[in-house]
Structure formats: structure tokens, C-alpha cells
């Protein structure tokens, strides 16, 4: 019999377990398939550890309450799916602008609109990047196994605290709803990052001032004596709104650069059988699992093929993808949409190698046979 | 190397998703790799329901069951829907209430009274899923008896442990009673 | 001489404010601060949350923990803040469009939960910040830039709405009686539950001009004539009640408060694995 910390766990459940290990103390949500289990389990588990759960009246209220809770110093999360993710964009923009850490889980489903509520799709790649209006950057992570959901959720919290920004966890219905093995590590084996709080006298505190060596401003929790103003308007380092063009330019550039300039810290990926590969597949989430199966079969047939799997989907692992493009004769981007990430890969890799796409939008997980057939046919 | 894909099908409310979870957990106790998934219609009760389990000695990448090695069908509509998804030479466990004789000659068919045993012999229709698990175990030996018993007790509601132990025994017996028709190793 | 209230509770570096001459928002904001002062609340433990609109700019001028949120969402943000840290006194400043149109759903549900938040609606019957469009409280027949031929919508009775939805302190006041505003905000903060205070205020620039209501002073005079205390109203014969707006305490209820109930849940399952 295996050790007691080895469990059979559903993907959505692993997300909640990871969040709690990361220090989640607040969850606000609204029921929506296929993410509802995340709300249900948060409702059951949070009060047991003194945390708070609330089912809000709608999706926008959920992200608003999540952001509000974070202002009091509590690590907060909300979870949703397709139609709800559209509604969350308002809050995501606010959290970016006001630099309030929070985690937004999107267990994707078929769209547009109500679409296919219980079927998998990877159609929200670009919405995760550009769903909210205005110039910005975003961190979005994309796990591929139940175990990875656990760790990626922790990473989402850590990055959101470190960079004072909302972090999106994109999940596939397939993995959110399936169960597989996970070994829950001891808490002391896991690195947890907490936001940096100010230590100076409240009278010296400027809520959006960057101190030497810091990436983001220190964040005071409401109720601790640092009275300050939070707004979604362009603001200077005092936090008060301004329409000064120079301040606006400086602020928005900083918000983008704090993510783009720290890619080396943020970007995570997996390379599978790429060492000697002369052709590559790029896939993420559940589709990457199918790609691995396909690669194993193609390898048996003598093909030198491997997988590059982004775990950080935004920002893009540009450097690594460009390196890859220089040493393979083709890259096939496999995804459950009609080429959202392909466009990104093609921009980076297209000047070095041939980039092709294989996409499906029928509500079924792309299977290994399809990928094999596509790769073989393309060759012919 | 074991790589076995099972599809448990019937109607919503028959506990097939729980059955899949229990089976998967038992395989996990045995140290196997396992993936369990399910699909259901919008109905919470009635409608079609299926639960799928892959048990393997290898890492399981593609998590979906396509053609399965074993199909359990508790209703006629589930049988109709999934009979073609059974692999050549695969195993079909059919409830006796399903009034069908498969035309396929390549498969092994076990017609056993799972639903009747639950509702008439044990007086609880809800334990049909556990009876089915007992039968699957006895027939395939994919998971150990001990692991299955432990997984059942871990997942059923408190206060129903004895009933579910009995149900598991009944499931074993349904196969024992048909020993002459069994294949492979039976424990 | 700068008043004690301004010195202590206003972020003077953010002044002057954006409000027009004759706008009532400054008076209502002062009334809120006066109520806080009267109650002797610790500034560090007060959180003021606002939405979007002219009135919602008040949050930025006040020296507390302040959040200027997105349009309509002040109550949703405030709910997260209050539930996450129930020790904070949470006050929401909102307008008629912010609270009753885009934020209507949040108002209903905050009242239903009876969460301990005091909401003050600056009701000026118009969308001021965007330039004079009709709001859910623009009286039928009145004009706005998006109702050039007169508003055909029925207008909301916000206090009735709050009562029906479950608020446990509901009151209406008017710019014509600033002391009443102070008193109501005090009562609202003291009420352990959801408190809803509708304050009738003036927008001479848009609502006044569009509807020939005169300047700020005339509009206040008009409010004074139009409003009547609930006690006096109840004594009026039916024919004289027409067109009067009741001010004063409208409703008081006694229901469990949300964050306290949640704490009970926590206590009841403590130690369970």
C-alpha cells in the first residue's frame, strides 16, 4: 500500500488543496460548470482553517469581493469558466491597475457564449492575455496533470504576491474533472511567498513608491495603520489619481515591465524527448498529454520528435521557443482552438522554421491518433 | 504490462461515477497508475451516465478511454450507445434486465443480475454499483480484493459499511456462480 | 480657519475637489465625516469604499483606508473587505446610477445578507460625471441628455427597495436638512447589519439646468419644500401626501448579521479535519 499522502484526487480538488497550502484565506465565487467543485470544496474547507468563503450574487461581484479581501492582507482566489471569465475581466483590469494580488481560475469550456458547458476547449488563450481592456501584461499558468494543478496553484499565489498582480490559472475541463494520483508534499517542502509589507512609519508610506531593489511597491493591509487610497484610475506613487501624461506613461510601462522584464523568474516549461529531436510539437494542458502519447508512438516509428510544453502560457517563453525553432525543421502547434497560440509561436519561430497548426473545436480532447495522422500526412 | 481501460455505463443515479472512483482508488492502493473520468448529461437523475477508468503500469498520458477492454452496461440505452466502443475480444458485463443479445461474436459476455441482487436480495438498489465492482474484480483481477474492499470503505457513506461489504461479496459471488464461463486467472 | 473636521479627516493635498458650485456632494461628505467624528471611530479601522461617479470621488478626499472601485461594484468590494476583516467599519459611498443601475444587484444582495456595511447613496437624480444622462431615480417626465423628450421610465424608490431586500436600517435624508444626514449616518454605522441611507442631493449643472430647477440654493429650497418627515407625513390627509417625499428613519429591523453568522460556522466546525 502506498504512503498515506498519496491520494486519488480530482483536478479541481487539487486546485483547492494547492491554494490552501499557498495560504488562501478567502474565496468568493459563483456556480459555473466545469469549475464549481473549486467553490464547493473552498466552502467546505476554508471555515475549518478560519478562512472565509462567500458565494456572491454574480461573477463580477465574486472577483470584486476577492480583490477587496486581498486589500485586508488575505490571500484570495476566485474560480470560474468561459462565460464567467468574460465577466471577470473588469476586475482583472482593476487588480492589474491597483496592483492587488489575487488568483483567478478559469476551467475552460467550449464557447463562445454558453457553448459546450461540460466539454473541454482551449479557446480562452487570448482572452487570458487580452480580455481586459487597456495596455497591460498578465501572468497565466497552464497545468497539465492533477499533480501539476496542485503545484501551479501554489505558484500562481506566489507570483501574484511577488509581482502584486492578478494571476490567471487556465485549466482544461478534462483535467479539472478527472482523478489521478497525487502525492501531497509536506508543507515545509513548499516555498511560499508572501507580499512585502511596509515597515516604515505610516507617515512615510507612499503606497505606490518603488524602493531600491524592489520590483513592486510594498503593500499595506487595511486596518494596520497605513491609511491609503486605492483606485483604478491612473495614479502617482501617492495612490491618488492624476491625468498627468508623464505619470501615466511611467505607471503603465512599469506595470507591463514588472512582468515582461522578469520572464526568467516567471516562465516555466517542460521539454519532452526534445534532446535529439529534429521536429517538435508545442502543446499545453490536456492537449500536451495527447501529444506525449503521440510522440511515444512516432518515436517507435523512428521519428525524432519531441514536445515543448509551456506551463507559463503568458508571458511567452520567447527565448526558449526561438532556440527550439533554430534546431528543428518544423513545429506543430496542437491546441483545442483554431490557432490562438499558433499565431504567437509563428511570430517567434516562423523566421527560423516551418510552423504549422493542428486545432479542433468540437468539444473533444484531441487524441494521439489524430496528432499522429496529422504529422504523418503533413510529411507526405 | 497491464494497461486496461474500463467503461462503466448506465443511467444517472446508479452510482457509476462513484464506482469508477472506487475502482481507481483501489488500483492506486495496488501501486498502479490510474486515471478516472466521467461524463454525464444535464440530468442529475436518469439520463445517460458513464465513468471511465484507465489502470496501467505505465504513465498515463492521454487520459480518455476510447475503445475499452471492459464495458459494464446496466441499462439498455447504455448498451446501445457503447457496445461498439468495446475492443475486439473485449469483455462485456451486462445486467440481466437489459433485454439484449449482442450480435458481436468476438467478445466475452457475462450476463449477471446486478440490479436485481441489489434491490431484491439486499433490498437496496443503491448498492448495485458496489456489486458491479465485486464482479469486475473477480472477473479481471485488475485490482486486489483487499485494495478494493479498502477503497469501498473509504468512499461509501458512514453507516453503510456493512451493507457495502455484503454488496461486494454478492458481486464476487455473481462471478463465482458462473465459474465455468470465466477466463484468465480468477482469485 | 480650516475646520477640525477638514484637518483631521480630509486629505487636504487632494483638494480642491472636482465638484461643481452648488453640488451637494461636499455637504453630504462632511456629514459622513461629522458622524464618524461624533462616534469617535479610529480612522485606521474605517474603510470607505466607493464606485464610479461624482459622489464616488469622495473616497479619495477622505483620510481613511479608501477604495475607489469600478462602476457599481463598491458593495461587492466592500463585502470582501468586511468578510475578510470584520473588525473594520466599512462605509460605502455611491450614487444613484452606481448603486441602483449598474450596481443594483449588489445592493439587493448586500441587503439580503444583512452584512454590516453602511451605504450612503448620494441621490442627485442624474448621471453627473458623464454629463447628465437620466438615472434610475430621475423622476418620470424629467429630462436628461439621453431623455431629451422626457424620461418615460418609472423611477426607483431606493428605500423601499432596501427594505424589501432585507436591510436592517433604512433612512432617507435631504440636503435641506444636513443635521439629519449626520444623525442617520451615525445610526447606520451603529446598526449591526446592512444600513442604507439615501440622501437627496443637488446637481445644478446637469439635472438642475436640464429641468429648469434653478441653481444650488433654489434646488435645496425645493428639496426643503418637497420633503416631509415621516412622523408629519403620517398625520397628513391623503390628498396632501401626493408628491411629498418622506425623509427620516424609514425602517429598522433585527436580523442576524452575515459576518457574525459566518463566525458561528467557523466556531461550530473548529478542529474538524
Task: Describe it.
The complex is a heterotrimer of chains A (about 375), B (about 190) and C (about 270). Chain A has about 375 residues and is of the alpha/beta class. Chain A is about 40% helix and about 20% strand. Chain A contains 13 helices and 15 strands. Chain A has a 7-stranded mixed sheet with strand order 3-2-4-5-7-6-13, sandwiched between helices. In chain A, strands 10-12-11-14-15 form a 5-stranded mixed sheet, sandwiched between helices. In chain A, strands 1-8 form a two-stranded antiparallel sheet. With about 190 residues, chain B is α/β, with parallel strands linked by helices. Chain B has a domain at about 5-110 and about 140-155: Pyruvate-ferredoxin Oxidoreductase, domain 3 (3-Layer(aba) Sandwich). Helix content of chain B is about 35%, strand content about 25%. Chain B has a 6-stranded mixed sheet, sandwiched between helices. The radius of gyration of chain B is 15 Å and the shape is globular. Chain C has a single domain (about 5-265), classed as Thiamin diphosphate (ThDP)-binding fold, Pyr/PP domains (Rossmann fold). Classes of the chains: A alpha/beta (about 375), B alpha/beta (about 190), C alpha/beta (about 270). The interface of A and C includes residues 70, 73, 76, 225 and 227 of A. Strand 8 of chain A pairs antiparallel with strand 2 (about 35-40) of chain B.
